[in-house]
């Protein structure tokens, strides 16, 4: 009986860990023969060398890291970039004023001299990839696995710095398969990137939070930029008027031919992170503690921000980027928990682990692996909520988060007897610069409410032995009962009125004569220090131990999976390195008696349109174009309308925002920007039936640029393919 059970579990392992249809974010330089053959079978017309080449122009040369966490694609011989509206949102907001509100009204440069510089924005091109696993392992051979998590970052940075020394490139070494493989990525960074065009946010964010992560979707989520090089053809350092548009190695032609259910679709980009090899213990921690805590805290912060944003257009501009980022993953983590539970991912992971143990029986290296994993999670779980409440709650107040950054200033002042005067001067100068930026972004009314709410939630939701007792005891003595909102509101009001961070007179006095006592007694710094010190005293050691041990055991589990599945197609978790996924344009049925088409059209925009609504308003000119059916060459003959969005079966995650959706011939057909609610478990478990990537149809992008924006100059710059 035991033998039959073992065989059954091993069979289950082979079915549950094997690659499912359309699953996989593949490293572009390691596409195996089996995978490439499947891509061809699905419709691909390109050679492997056209997908990725170190020596010749290939699709990889048209793909960029956009900013710090998105993807973009080069679409013209003059360095034009398409990406998502939400990826360019912060730069659009930074360029906007009440008088020139590009978020609200949109912007279209009719010539290159009208393009807007975006300080701080850069794009990176992948130059090459090298396997450095042996070199890294040589440095790890005398280090215990439990110490990897502490020492590995330093080792990788040292190796990366050495590899980039004396070159014009940036080198980063990334870990794969939970520390079982290491690859070195060489990038070239361009720092002169300019805004070329953006639709009004009533198009770029049409549907708002209501439609976020939902299908059907009618959002025109795009923005357009251009990358510049120096006059001598090198990567420019910063904006210079004399810089020239980049002449790229490769750019994507743009298809306006249209698409059909079942068409081949391929997505290149930089997916930020998945954890497909997560254990059942990690799934349980996420669904029971981490995600619910994060959702509750973000929900409270969003309500406080929105209450101020609806009062004043200037505040809406000020908080727009921050609000959008918080809201995006508020809904994601809520949906992720629900889908993980609905699809019984915890139980599926338990089955995988039982199957692994059946395979590993007799292999002493894997003895007691999961009992050790259980011990690690059992030890950390009682403290996990406190860490979330510090990071998402206390640091959810911009003022407290900023105050915590002054720790380096405290260190310099407290070491004044041994610190050279220039070090204190350096710390003060850094404070001046960072405060100026903080004041520009800070909205006092919303943050004051956020602080009050977060302080109460921490007291209410965290067990008494893990809160900063002295802080709350003083709060009760000076401001009132700890179960009353008014207590926290009055305290927060006092902090905001008295902190030198916000009080110009107190700030100037401190800058002229900085002293340690004044900083430590500042109400904002004193408040956040109470929580940071509390974390360091009660939580940090537990997290350090959990982080180290969970990495060590997961490293071993991953090693075992690679052994068990040797000879089959496996892919590493996403980690913001270039990947390619492939699938098809495909409709789906999320539940009984419901079937979703593979496309959404402008008809849906008209149906959802609500004049003046915060989420479903639309420009009057767009509604006029729809009324007159003035669609031009962007008309989809099959629907008799303009296709706004479409869905594919591609495997993507955060970081793929702005990624090009490419057809079988290597032509751009759309931009990936979202996923569907039914498959929000995708970071941990891919759903072969329900997973869909929501993509902006490039024809809608062109329609908006041409018909709404009147920027035919942008259209003329592209290579359009109509047959």
SSE arrangement:
Blueprint: H1 2-16, E1 26-27, H2 33-42, H3 48-51, E2 63-66, E3 70-74, E4 80-83, H4 85-95, H5 102-105, E5 107-108, E6 116-117, E7 123-131, H6 133-140, H7 148-164, E8 170-176, E9 181-190, E10 193-198, H8 201-204, H9 208-211, E11 223-229, E12 244-245, E13 254-255, E14 264-269, H10 280-309, H11 313-342, H12 345-360, H13 369-393, H14 398-404, H15 407-414, H16 421-441, H17 444-461, H18 469-479, H19 485-498, H20 504-512, H21 516-521, H22 523-538, H23 540-564, E15 579-584, E16 588-591, E17 594-596, E18 599-601, H24 602-608, H25 620-627, E19 643-648, E20 660-662, E21 668-675, E22 693-697, H26 698-708, H27 712-717, E23 720-721
Parallel strand pairs: 13-23
Antiparallel strand pairs: 1-15, 2-3, 2-7, 3-4, 4-11, 5-10, 6-10, 7-9, 8-9, 10-11, 11-12, 14-15, 14-20, 16-17, 18-19, 19-22, 20-21, 21-22
**What is the beta-strand fraction?**
5-15%
Rounded mean pLDDT is 94
Structural class: alpha+beta
- Tell me the CATH topology of the domain at 31-122 and 191-275 and 573-721: Thrombin, subunit H
Helicity range: 40-55%
Number of helices: 27
Low-confidence stretches: 1-18
Shape: globular
Question: Biggest sheet, open or closed, and with what strands and sense?
Answer: 11 strands, antiparallel
Q: How many beta-strand runs?
A: 23
How large, in whole angstroms, is the Cα Rg? 27 Å
Q: Whole-Å distance between the termini?
A: 63 Å
> At the first level of CATH, what is the class of the domain at 31-122 and 191-275 and 573-721?
Mainly Beta
CATH architecture of the domain at 31-122 and 191-275 and 573-721: Beta Barrel
């Amino acid at each position: 009986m035991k033998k039959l059970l073992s065989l059954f579990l091993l069979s289950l392992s082979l079915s549950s860990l094997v690659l499912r249809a359309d699953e996989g974010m593949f490293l572009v330089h390691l596409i195996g023969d089996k995978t490439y053959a499947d891509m061809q079978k699905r419709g691909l017309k390109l050679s492997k060398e056209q997908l990725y080449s170190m020596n010749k122009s290939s699709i990889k040369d048209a793909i960029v890291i956009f900013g710090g966490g998105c993807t973009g694609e080069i679409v013209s011989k003059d360095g034009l970039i398409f990406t998502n509206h939400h990826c360019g949102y912060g730069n659009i907001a930074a360029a906007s004023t009440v008088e020139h509100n590009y978020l609200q009204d949109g912007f279209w440069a009719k010539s290159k001299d009208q393009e807007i510089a975006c300080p701080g924005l850069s794009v990176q091109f992948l130059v090459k990839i090298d396997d450095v696993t042996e070199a890294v392992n040589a440095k790890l051979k005398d280090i215990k696995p439990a110490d990897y998590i502490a020492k590995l970052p330093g080792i990788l940075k040292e190796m990366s710095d050495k590899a980039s020394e004396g070159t014009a490139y940036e080198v980063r070494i990334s870990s794969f398969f939970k520390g079982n493989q290491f690859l070195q990525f060489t990038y070239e960074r361009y720092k002169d990137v300019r805004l070329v065009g953006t639709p009004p946010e009533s198009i770029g964010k049409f549907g708002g939070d209501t439609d976020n992560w939902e299908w059907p979707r009618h959002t025109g989520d795009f923005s357009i930029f251009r990358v510049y090089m120096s006059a001598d053809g090198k990567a420019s350092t910063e904006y210079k008027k004399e810089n020239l548009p980049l002449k790229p190695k490769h750019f994507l032609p743009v298809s306006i031919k249209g698409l059909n259910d079942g068409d081949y679709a391929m997505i290149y980009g930089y997916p930020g992170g998945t954890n497909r090899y997560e254990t059942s213990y990690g799934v349980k921690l996420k669904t029971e503690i981490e995600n619910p805590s994060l959702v509750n805290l973000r929900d409270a912060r969003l309500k406080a921000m929105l209450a101020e944003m609806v009062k004043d257009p200037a505040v809406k501009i000020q908080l727009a980027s921050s609000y959008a980022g918080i809201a995006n993953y508020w809904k994601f983590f809520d949906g992720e928990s629900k889908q993980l539970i609905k699809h019984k991912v915890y139980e599926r992971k338990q089955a995988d682990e039982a199957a692994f143990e059946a395979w590993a029986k007799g292999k002493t290296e894997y003895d007691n692996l999961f009992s050790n994993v259980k011990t690690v999670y059992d030890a950390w779980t009682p403290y996990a909520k406190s860490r979330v409440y510090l990071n998402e709650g206390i640091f959810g107040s911009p003022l407290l988060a900023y105050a915590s950054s002054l720790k380096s200033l405290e260190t310099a002042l407290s070491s004044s007897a041994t610190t050279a005067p220039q070090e204190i001067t350096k710390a003060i100068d850094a404070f001046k610069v960072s405060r100026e930026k903080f004041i520009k972004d800070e909205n006092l009314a919303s943050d004051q409410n956020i602080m009050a709410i977060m302080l109460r939630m921490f007291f209410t939701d965290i067990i008494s032995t893990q809160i900063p007792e002295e802080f709350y005891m003083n709060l009760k003595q000076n401001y009132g009962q700890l179960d009353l909102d008014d207590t926290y509101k009055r305290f927060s009001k006092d902090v905001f009125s008295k902190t030198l961070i916000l009080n110009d007179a107190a700030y100037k006095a401190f800058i002229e004569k900085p002293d340690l006592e004044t900083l430590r007694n500042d109400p904002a710094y004193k408040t956040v220090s109470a929580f940071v010190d509390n974390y360091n005293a009660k939580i940090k050691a537990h997290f350090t131990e959990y982080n180290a041990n969970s990495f060590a055991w997961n490293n071993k589990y991953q090693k075992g999976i690679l052994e068990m599945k040797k000879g089959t197609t496996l892919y590493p978790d996403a980690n913001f390195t270039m990947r390619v996924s492939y699938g098809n344009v495909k409709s789906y049925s999320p539940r009984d008696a419901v079937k979703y088409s593979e496309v959404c059209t402008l008809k849906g925009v008209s149906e959802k349109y609500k004049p003046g609504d915060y989420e479903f308003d639309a420009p009057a000119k767009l509604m006029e174009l729809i009324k007159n059916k003035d669609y031009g060459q962007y008309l989809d003959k099959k629907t008799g309308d303009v296709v706004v969005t479409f869905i594919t079966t591609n495997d993507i995650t955060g970081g793929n925002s702005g990624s090009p959706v490419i057809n079988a011939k290597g032509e751009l057909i759309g931009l990936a920007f979202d996923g569907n609610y039914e498959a929000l478990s995708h970071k941990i478990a891919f759903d072969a039936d329900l997973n869909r990537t929501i993509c902006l149809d490039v024809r809608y992008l062109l329609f908006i640029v041409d018909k709404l924006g009147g920027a035919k100059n942008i259209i003329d710059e592209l290579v359009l393919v109509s047959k």
